[in-house]
Amino acid sequence: MKALRRKDLISIFDLAKEEIEGILSLAATLKDKFRKNISYTPLAGKTLAMIFEKPSLRTRVTFEAGMTQLGGHAIFLGPSDINIGVRETAADVAHNLERWVDGIMARTFSHQTVVDLAREASIPVINGLTDRLHPCQVLSDCFTLQEKLGSLAGRKVAFLGDGNNVAHSWIYASARLGINFSIACPRGYEPLPEIVREASAEATSNICVTHDIAEALSDADAVYTDVWASMGQENEAEKRRTVFAPFQLNSAALALARPQALVMHCLPAHRGEEIIDEVLDGPQSIVFDQAENRLHCQKAILTALMANTKRKGKGERRKAKGQVSG
Ligand code: CP
Ligand code: NVA
Description:
alpha/beta; Rossmann fold; 2 domains; 13 helices; binds phosphoric acid mono(formamide)ester
């Protein structure tokens, strides 16, 4: 695939439609090679530093295994390892890492931390989830949906629940790929208006925010949900359980979508809260296919951003910085 225009992946909205399609197509190629046990090592000798301020199963394992499979290596840096902003600044972390490794993947609380790392580092920075966005998840979800439905443009994805990071990335992806996206959420838990505005201004599809489940679910090809209390919001969990209860993805809600609508969840799921077992484990569910595809899509992202990079000297490092996004 053609190299991406930006050195980082911070937001899906930074990608052109063709770039997203390139990543999805490369993911399909890499998945095929993986299944056939064909070795493909474009990242031989390269290292990815993975910064995690929050827990992770899927993102950590798929980035780490992905680097190994692409011939490279990944280093896990957990919450107590580098402590960005407390032990040292994001800028200083970036200025160290760029001298040793070839890429950074970061999962942080503040979105600004990932933006700062990307601005300061001359090497690619990948957003592995912030309080604002989860681009790798949603790129992979689009790949899964494309596998299942054959095409994405003109399809409708309905999201039940919190207008948070996953929903935000869905709004951006929908705008870029011509997907109709409708979120039903409780009042006060809407996606950020600026994200809806920005995406809607460029979308050819419909981006809808409603408090009416039936409106959101009507005609939906896929129904998506996410936890009601995200990482870092644990102290709000009890209140949110009450507020979000009418937005549970249960059999009655699913029946409001198209027959055979696909059931999606980024996982981890809080069974019995945002989704019930019968739906999560039911015949319409593709949640474990989504999880499986994180590996292949992550490998496509890593390859697109890191396969053609060269080690840089001081002057070149300066020039490579400053491509800051959202
Ligand atoms: N969906 C997702 O990002 O899972 P983890 O939090 O386990 O990485
Ligand atoms: N919204 C969730 C997504 C987890 C993958 C969170 O931020 O915790």
